[in-house]
Structures are given as structure tokens and as C-alpha cells.
Please model this.
Amino acid sequence: MPDHDLLLTFFKSLADAKRLRIVGLLAHRAYTVEELAEVLDLRASTVSHHLSKLSGAGLVSATVQGHYHLYALDTDALEAHARSLLSTGELRELAPIDEGVDPYDRKVLATFLDEEGRLKAHPMKRKKFEVILRHALHTWFDDAGPWTEIEINGRLKALTDDVASIRRGFIDHGLMCRDKRGTEYVKS
Amino acid sequence: MPDHDLLLTFFKSLADAKRLRIVGLLAHRAYTVEELAEVLDLRASTVSHHLSKLSGAGLVSATVQGHYHLYALDTDALEAHARSLLSTGELRELAPIDEGVDPYDRKVLATFLDEEGRLKAHPMKRKKFEVILRHALHTWFDDAGPWTEIEINGRLKALTDDVASIRRGFIDHGLMCRDKRGTEYVKS
DNA sequence: GATTTGATTCTATATCTATCGAAACGAATC
DNA sequence: GATTCGTTTCGATAGATATAGAATCAAATC
Model:
């Protein structure tokens, strides 16, 4: 799970009054589900739901003890997230911005990529397709290479399922070429 | 606004993917509403709504600049909240509980401790066992710690010969936790 | 003053989620 | 094995909220 989603589930898990109180209670000692239900004036099923959210964010964990499930706070996870809020550096990584990309390219990318950065449609115009190609090359092939076809396909999976079109595009548009034996690819 | 609600609005304000990205973007530089709308692919009115939430939590603030409203991140507010997550002490204040020996506890202690204050039997009920644990913690571990396992065993000898059960109970019930190296114990 | 531009407010809607009750489940007890 | 007890899962519902669009507002430009 990328950094962004990790932080998001973290915040979502704490964005509820009852769950905040649960964390507060668990900061004192471990509780069972029914104990929490009693204190919070909720049904056990509701508390269970809250605990599953907190546990999904890694904030609490249960140790099964015969009949009971003892829920305890994981203070380390809390600290880890808190620390990432203290550095603006980490915050910046939440929203990487493409410096150096010129306005036209940015516009094209915004049009053809969705929020996850996946290809929404194939640009018909050659010029726009090349913007996509350069973006892909810069994003997933920043190392020196060479790469096998399998390797290339694997990396491009993040962009689109139609990896072949992109791979062929790299060749056709002169951004990559094959080595002598034709088995491996390298940047031109 | 009490501590609890402050933290709640803080978490609610960040419990949204778009708002997290806004914070990430503002960590780079200040943005206007329409700039953000463009980048996030949202209407200006929606962005305005998000910014009002963030501003309600004190995370961003706008400086009016002629035509534009320049929104900037308030890193101090972020740090302040992050810091409160780092101390379990502050977390406990989220859910104050009434310490003090209540009648029920006294009854349990009378049942399971003999005249010398030694454990007559192991309570089967979890709740009663915890009464014993809290009593032991309060009686023999009033100092700050940390303690080695040997030290803990020594002190608990006054309570019972089966020191291991109690020591394990401290951990399982969230009253103590181990330090990083796992060699020493400290109150949670 | 009229117009334009950027931002906010208001209203409506579609999605999400907190909550409950019922059912299912697993472990301990009878 | 049947039962009980604590927990989780499922289905339904009511309340919250993210979003868009229209209307409003404020400042700058004409």
C-alpha cells in the first residue's frame, strides 16, 4: 500500500468520536469488546466494527485469551504516523508534483491519466502519444537497463493492461531499441 | 473547544483522499483555489469546501492577494497535533477514567487476598484478575521503572509464588509493555 | 457603473458509514 | 454433544459528506 493510502486509512480510522475514545481508553489498559461496549454505550457489534477499522490501520491488536479478545493499543504505530506529520518532507511526498514538465505535457497527462496514474484512453494524435511514452519512460525506466520483454511488460502493468502497444510505441517512436540478438531492450 | 473535539476535527479534516493531496501540494507551495481545482480535477466550489474543512482545523490559512486567495499550510498546527499523538499521557486525557479503589475492587481483593495480602487463588474471571493486577501494580510498582524481569519477579514474590502468571498478566492486559530490546519492562 | 474574475454559499444528490439486530462462529463449560 | 458466552459477520437503515451546479459576493478592470 502506498504511503498516501496508509496515511489515509490512518486518519479515517481516527476520524470518529467513538474510536477516538476507544484509543483513549486503550491508552490506559487493554479492554475486551464488551467492556468497551459498556463504557461507550454501544452494541458489541458496533464496537467490533470500530476495532476492525482501528486494527486495519494497525493501531490496535487483539490477543485471544480463552473466551476473550483483549484489545491493546499499538503505540509504535501511532508514533510512526505522528512522526511522518512532523516532517514537511514526508508531506510533500503525499503529492509529488511534476516539476520540469512543460504545461502542454502536463495538460496531456491530466487528460489521459486517471487519479491512479493509469491510462484512461489511447491518444490518437502522435504528439500526445509521445507525451505518454516519455512519461512512462521517465517514471518506470529511470535505471540504465537493458530490460527483457518480460521485465518491460511487468513495469508497464502499472500504466495499462495493453502493455504491448506501449512497448511497441517505445520502439516505433525511437525511445528504445533492441540489442543485437533482439532479445533485450535498451534506451536509445 | 475541548481537547477531544480539537483532535476529532483534526482527524476528520484529513480523513479524505483529496484533502490529503491538498495538504501534500501545499507542503510544496501556496496555491489558489482554482489552481487546486485544476490539479485535483474538481470544481472550485468543491475545493473551497475542502479548504474550509482544513481551515476549520487550523491546518491552512488564506492570505487575500488582490484577486486571489492564496492558501498556505500551517505547519505549526500540524506539528502541535502530531506531538500530542506521541505522548500516551495526552492520549489518556482523551478518555479520563476514575481511578480510586471502588467497592467492587475492595470486595474482590478481600476475597482473593489473605491477611498477609498474599494471593489465595487465581481468579478465573478476567475482570477480577485485572483487579488483582491493578492492585499489584499500584502496591509494588509505584516508582517509574523500568524493571528487569528479575526485579519484577522479586517484588511479586510478596504476592504469590506464581510470579510468572502475574507478570504475563501485566503485559497481556496492557498494564506494562516491554522496551525495544525486550529485556526490560515499563508501565504503559 | 458595468463587466469580468476568483471565491464562497446554497441546494440537491449520490455515496459512504455508523449503528443496530440477527445470524454465524469458536472456544470453554456443562 | 449441547449449551453458553464473547466475538465477528451480514443486512438494513438512518445520518453524514463529497461533489456539482447555480446563485451570490467581492475585488479589479473596463
Q: What stands out?
A: Residues 32-34, 44-45, 47-49, 52, 62, 67-69 of chain B lie near DNA strand C (CB under 10 Å from a C1').
